[in-house]
Amino acid sequence: MKIAICCRKGSFSDYWLTYCEENGISYKKVDAYQSDIMKQIEDCDAFMWHFSHLDYKDKVFAKQLLYSIEASGKPVFPNFKTVWHFDDKLGQKYLFESIKAPLVTSYAFYTKQEALLWANKASFPKVFKLRGGAGSTNVKLVDTRKEAVSLISRAFSRGFSAYDPLASLKDRWRDYRSGKCPFFVLLKSFFRLFIVSSAIKLLPLEKGYVYFQDFIPNNDTDTRIVVIGDKIIGERRGVRNGDFRASGSHILLPDASKVDMRCVQLAYNVSQKLGLQIGVFDFVHDKDNPLLVEVSYGTDPDYTECEGYWNEKLQFTSAPINLPKMIIESFIQNSSN
After folding, report:
1. CATH number of 2-77, picked from 3.60.15.10, 3.40.50.20, 3.30.420.240, 3.30.70.120
2. Which residues belong to any copy of the ATP-grasp fold RimK-type domain (predicted)?
């Protein structure tokens, strides 16, 4: 097998290239941004690309390219089942509801009138989300009906930028005060209030819909479960002081004995049912009941802090974790079957 790998610095591809070199696997570096990408991969048997939801170019065509290569008969990572709903909370709402997965109760509206009718009857607080964004970006706690009406009005008028520099600065300031953010990162975030990069300017506005979820109180952690084939990684993540979000907090709690095994089982079951190559699931607890918040494919290439992994029988193995290695090994194994 010869694998075409689209390289992006800081992504899984850094590890995939090393893995291929060390294990004698034939590979070819390709550039997905070139118009002749289909010709580039003609002599390859498979294609792998860890694309970014934060790059406007990737948002324009990455999924379409992957679908097209998969349609030609070549195995791809990520494939259609794994990635069509990536960075799309609206899509995930319908997906989870279709298989009756225990999703946090969610509300989607596509007209201002329907959204306002709902807001007038709803209880608060609620959580407002844009369909895209990671690390808790584009997520706000809405305490009052007045705040909800303001967000709804904006959603059906000028819309929202995919990047909120003020919210980002507030998060970096909170992280800096807790010792989790270097000063230069804080400074960089401050300057983004005044200097917006051309790449961010090219991201489309989010408008024409509005999306809320029920607020689930009394969660000082959430649970992150990663399923790759028959291996399952899990850890909890702490909520920042004065915040309600764990995603993006960088407070990692990898003690496997503290992970709710119901989350492990649920994540594995959903991943199998949906046929995911990788599923990165976030859970919160409503009293004692685990609820899904969202799923992703693109995650940090780390998890080295985790203590090991469970198998499909929920048996735990203590072992160093190398997530990109697990991905490429699973991909090669399944592509060869």
Report:
1. 3.40.50.20
2. 210-296
